[in-house]
Amino acid sequence: MRPPSAPFPTRVKKSYWYLPFIPLGAVIFMCIGVGLWVHYTALAYNNTGAVIQILNVQGQGSSNSYIIRIFQSLQATAVVYCIFTGLIVGLGSYRGMLELDLDLSGRLHEYWPYFMAAILVLQGTWWIIMVWLVLLIMGDGIFLSWLWITRQGLQATLIAQGNVGASTYQYSSVYTCPATCFNANSYAFFGMSSYGGPNSGTFNSYGCICDPNTITAALSAVDTGYHATGGLMVGIWLMYIYGNVLVYYMTSIMMTATKEQDVFERLSGVIK
């Protein structure tokens, strides 16, 4: 049947066909990804902060400031990601309502232009979020590399101490750190850009750690952080992969809606 002046023939489908199955299915994996990413990122970075405290080293461009920024970006990313995921699911549900109205009346709903504008805005914003996730994946890769390098350095120091014995560092005007000590100056992450006197200020400004108990405690914290990066990477990749599923979904419904609008306008002209 076709109501008066309705370009499209009406039809009746099962109500569940109007549900946004694709975004709802993607959201399940995205929520798992967000949970894994937030939990294991917090675990990894908390242990990174513990390493800095245990070794008692920091310098210009302190690592603590980097960790604070990372936590801020973590919180902001998780909140924005979840909000826009909910908006996309809502948009998919609204698309189902408009399609139902089209099937029953044979005409496009009066709010159709608002739907088209909303999907353009959401799609553009979601692309920006996806680009940001790519940058975060790169940053997580760099962080994983730093943990691995630091872990190897601490392990090598303990092995050297086991073979030779622990050394004692004595500050002098000529900076030298024994091979059996952990030299934080060799790691850019610690920000040790200059050498101070022994225990100057509130931290070990010369970055030469010889105490085996301190090195062992730092290695334990690094190990915990290093093993947390597996869950961290799985989580953010789930967020990225299923985030791209929503990109394709929005592109699909936008193309379908555009085609429906075009056909409606053509048929309306014929009927008139």
TrEMBL record:
This is Uncharacterized protein. The chain crosses the membrane at residues 21-40, 74-94, 228-249. It comes from Chlamydomonas eustigma. Keywords: Membrane, Transmembrane, Transmembrane helix. The lineage of its organism: Eukaryota, Viridiplantae, Chlorophyta, core chlorophytes, Chlorophyceae.
